[in-house]
């Protein structure tokens, strides 16, 4: 499900490789992603991590088949796991570039938000559709989305569940570039001195501690899972 490829030139590619499910993530997949990022941090030959999706999507987020079997307690734990993975990406000593080609939805968008750079192809789309079936992005999305695009745009995306295209994402600051080959940006960054790249990323993304906000987010997610569990199971059967 998670593949790593030392592409050379200081770039290590991590691929979410479950294309039949649009790279939706289960708990084992999340654990594997965190492990891949942590392992990359330990390598002296890696300057930049490129995070990409296999197939036609970047990532559809959480696997709804798995979410449909959660209750309040396990929903809280699943949210906390996703938050931990996002924090692993965000706190990586190695800068992470989200190389987005295709849909980045829900938890997939939230993982991208945790990356240092987000670049996308023209066909990429973005959204937080969870509200349409009674949930919301709980992998740190309610914390990072308003920080990156502003509270007004974050509320618009989260409360409407609408999908935006790459041009709109660029306009609101969700991504920094639209490119034909998003992985080339990771190579561009890796061409600079490794130590300077790492120090710059660390200084620019230095923020206050977010643990208490994430704890409240996970609690609310668990409550939503409990409330809409029957609806989610019905959705799985469609």
From TrEMBL:
It comes from the Archaea. PROSITE patterns: ENOYL_COA_HYDRATASE. CDD domains: crotonase-like. Belongs to the enoyl-CoA hydratase/isomerase family. This is Enoyl-CoA hydratase/isomerase family protein. It comes from Halovivax cerinus. The lineage of its organism: Archaea, Methanobacteriati, Methanobacteriota, Stenosarchaea group, Halobacteria.
């Amino acid at each position: 499900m998670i593949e790593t490829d030392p592409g050379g030139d200081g770039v290590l590619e991590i691929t979410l490789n479950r294309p039949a499910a649009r790279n939706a993530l289960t708990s084992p997949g999340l654990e594997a992603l965190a492990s891949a990022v942590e392992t990359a941090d330990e390598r002296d030959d890696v300057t930049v991590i490129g995070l990409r999706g296999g197939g036609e999507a970047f990532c559809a987020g959480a696997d709804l088949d798995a979410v449909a079997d959660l209750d309040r307690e396990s929903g809280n734990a699943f949210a906390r796991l996703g938050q931990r993975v996002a924090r692993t990406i965000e706190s990586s000593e190695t800068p992470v570039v989200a190389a987005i080609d295709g849909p980045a939805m829900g938890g997939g968008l939230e993982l991208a938000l945790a990356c240092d750079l987000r670049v996308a192809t023209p066909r990429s789309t973005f959204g937080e559709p969870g509200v349409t079936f009674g949930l919301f992005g709980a992998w740190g999305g309610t914390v990072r989305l308003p920080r990156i695009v502003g509270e007004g745009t974050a509320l618009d995306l989260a409360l409407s569940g609408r999908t935006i295209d790459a041009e709109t994402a660029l306009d609101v600051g969700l991504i920094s570039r639209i490119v034909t080959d998003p992985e080339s940006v990771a190579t561009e960054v890796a061409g600079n001195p490794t130590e300077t790249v790492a120090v710059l990323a660390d200084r620019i993304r230095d923020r206050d501690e977010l643990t208490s906000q994430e704890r409240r987010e996970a609690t609310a997610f668990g409550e939503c899972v409990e409330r809409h569990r029957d609806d989610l199971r019905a959705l799985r059967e469609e």
